[in-house]
């Protein structure tokens, strides 16, 4: 592992009050190593498997905290709040705020168009897994509560455009909503069309499938004057 990178991560851990002499810094280095760098360097592991673990840990800890804070919630409301607290936008904002995004190790050809919310979010999940593996669940719980506090305590949650469109279009009965999504190589983006009963309501573009679908839903709502 690159020595300078290792020192950067140690400083990051000190700044975040995570570091102690018993932890394995390499776990955190792996959590912030992109696959493009790992592919170019022998015996270097990337963040992706840690991301898989971190996603589950984050879902559990946030669900537990929402259950504690809002005992009056119904399941749907709790799910909506959790989605808000752990979506790509939220985790990307936190990732940038605490300095993760600026400490990612990647090849020089990666992110030529800049890092997007999905990438920053994925690394936050991987970093969460590293904290769990090196510091335990209780410490991870406190870390998540501290850095997601503003999102956990925010009850004024705007519904995402896909949910809003679904609820609106199904006011008069259930109907099947289809998102037809394709990658357009000439644009380097995904295109998604939202279709209900063979009628196209909106088209959206994005760097990820999720972003394209959300933009399609936003445009569909505009077509309905919402």
TrEMBL record:
CDD domains: DSRM_RNAse_III_family, RIBOc. Its cofactor is Mg(2+). GO terms for molecular function: metal ion binding; ribonuclease III activity; rRNA binding. Keywords: Cytoplasm, Endonuclease, Hydrolase, Magnesium, Metal-binding, mRNA processing, Nuclease, RNA-binding, rRNA processing, rRNA-binding, tRNA processing. Residues 160-226 form the DRBM domain. InterPro entries: dsRBD_dom (IPR014720), RNase_III (IPR011907), RNase_III_dom (IPR000999), RNase_III_sf (IPR036389). It is found in: Cytoplasm. It catalyses: Endonucleolytic cleavage to 5'-phosphomonoester. Residues 9-136 form the RNase III domain. It holds the Pfam family Ribonucleas_3_3. It is an enzyme of class 3 (hydrolase). The active site is at residues 55, 125. Gene3D superfamilies: 3.30.160.20, Ribonuclease III domain. Mg(2+) binds at residues 51, 122, 125. Its EC number is 3.1.26.3. Its main location: cytoplasm. GO terms for cellular component: cytoplasm. One of its GO terms (biological process) is tRNA processing. The keyword Glycosyltransferase does not apply. Belongs to the ribonuclease III family. Digests double-stranded RNA. Involved in the processing of primary rRNA transcript to yield the immediate precursors to the large and small rRNAs (23S and 16S). Processes some mRNAs, and tRNAs when they are encoded in the rRNA operon. Processes pre-crRNA and tracrRNA of type II CRISPR loci if present in the organism. Homodimer. This is Ribonuclease 3. It comes from Metamycoplasma hyosynoviae. The gene is rnc.
């Amino acid at each position: 592992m690159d020595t300078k990178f290792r020192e950067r991560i140690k400083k990051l851990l000190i700044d975040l009050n995570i570091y102690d002499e018993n932890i394995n810094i390499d776990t955190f280095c792996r959590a912030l190593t992109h696959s493009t760098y790992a592919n170019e360097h022998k015996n270097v592991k990337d963040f992706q498997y840690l991301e898989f673990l971190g996603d589950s840990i984050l879902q559990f800890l946030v669900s537990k905290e929402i259950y504690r804070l809002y005992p009056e919630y119904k399941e749907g409301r709790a799910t909506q709040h959790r989605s808000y607290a752990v979506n790509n936008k939220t985790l990307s904002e936190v990732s940038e705020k605490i300095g993760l995004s600026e400490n990612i190790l990647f090849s020089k050809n990666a992110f030529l168009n800049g890092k997007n919310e999905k990438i920053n979010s994925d690394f936050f999940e991987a970093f969460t897994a590293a904290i769990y593996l090196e510091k335990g669940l209780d410490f991870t719980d406190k870390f998540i509560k501290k850095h997601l506090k503003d999102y956990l305590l925010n009850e004024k949650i705007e519904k995402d455009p896909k949910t809003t469109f679904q609820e609106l279009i199904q006011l008069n009965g259930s109907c099947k909503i289809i998102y037809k999504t394709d990658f357009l190589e000439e644009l380097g983006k995904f295109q998604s069309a939202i279709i209900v009963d063979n009628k196209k309501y909106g088209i959206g573009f994005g760097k990820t499938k999720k972003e394209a679908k959300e933009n399609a839903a936003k445009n569909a709502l505009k077509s309905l004057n919402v």
